[in-house]
Amino acid sequence: MGSSKGKDILFFGLFGLFLILSQTFTLKNKDIDSDRYLKIAICVGGLLLISGILVEVLFRQSLGIPLNVTFMSESSQAASTSILHTHLVKSIFGEVITSLIGPFISSGINTGVGLYTYVPNIAKIVIILFPILFILEILANQKRLAPTTILLSFFSTCLLIGALDGGMFSTPSMLGICGLFLIYRNHYYFDYYIGGVLLKNKKILTESEKEYPHYKDIKLSKVKFYLHRLLPYIITVLFITLRISIAIFGANNEYYTLEVVNPADNIELNDFPIESIQHSENKTVYTLDSSYNELNLIKDLKIPLNNKCEYYTISWNIYSYI
To answer: What is the per-residue pLDDT across 183-231, written as a single tens digit (0 to 9) for each?
Structure first.
């Protein structure tokens, strides 16, 4: 979950809620097709993650800033966002929560509301997908054996949190969406090997054996059957490859470009390795030495630029982590 206190609280709360609700509707409705709802949840989850990226693209087009920079707002509450780790959807959710229970939110929790004013109005409808996905994940977790119930609750929680804070390329999102797909394609093996073989639970072993997915039973050739099983892993590898590729091709390893919009007159960046400075009507562009670690640079800039500008952007340099 990273270093966010808010995400830690949200994770344990949602995880416990999914475990409790996984037993609720089963008692009332014996005809729930959990696999069907899981399939729909995967589709809605994928749509939510793609929508988060589209929101990021629309936002950058509206401000005329490149896709391969990290954006930092200083207008109300400091908040950052990028294609690789977007916080725009979080800002929409944060604005709703703040308006409802603002005084009860701890000062240590960043709700991302500093970005809310920059979110295009049409993009704010994305928040509707969250309650839809939540309900689908609950229905998808009915009538399942214990190992799959626990894993599906974990993956469902990761997907919701990742889509909210980080977007498609964040680790919780990738773990969540690929985990849901993994359960959809291979839930028998988790139940059989974890519950039956490892934990030696006879009830789970007996129940899981009833669903043994022999390739002839699902009318697939042997090759297609194993590809069917391995597809979630293939998609996971493609996800990770795409994330790394975007970070590499969008990076500038020669220097950092820092653009400060509507800067104050008393900005002091003397402690940074500045190579050149260019001033224009409403912004100042700094060129910094590329040897500075990107993560440290983003953290260190927060101090001298705090409440000293409207917003600023900093270019990527994945090579600085090597």
So the answer is: 998 888 888 778 777 777 777 777 776 666 655 556 777 788 788 788 8
State the Cα–Cα distance between residues 32 and 40, nearest whole angstrom.
13
DSSP annotation string for 124-165: GGGGGHHHHHHHHHHHHTSS--HHHHHHHHHHHHHHHHHHHT
Tell the burial category of 136 from Cβ atoms under 10 Å away from its Cβ (0-12, 13-18, 19+): buried
What average pLDDT score do residues 138-163 get?
Answer: 93
Structure token digits, residue 69 = 């920079």
Q: Which two tokens stand for residue 311?
A: 């917003």
**How many other CB atoms are found less than 10 A from the CB of residue 313?**
22
- pLDDT grade, residue 4 (50/70/90)? low
Q: SS3 for 284? A: strand
Task: State which amino acid sits at residue 301.
Answer: L
Contact 312, 258 (CB under 8 A): yes
Three-state DSSP at 71 gives strand
Q: Are strands 255-261 and 311-315 parallel, antiparallel or unpaired?
A: antiparallel
261 contacts 312 by C-beta, under 8 angstroms: yes
Cα torsion 127, 128, 134, 137: sign = negative
To the nearest 5 percent, what fractions of the chain are helix, strand and coil?
A: 60, 10, 30
User: CB–CB of 318/294 below 8 Å?
Assistant: yes
Torsion of CA 137, 139, 144, 147, to 10 degrees: 20
Tens of pLDDT, residue by residue over 30-67, are 677 889 999 999 999 999 999 999 999 999 999 999 99
Give the residues across from 312 on adjacent strands: 72, 260
Residue recorded with tokens 């139940």: 191
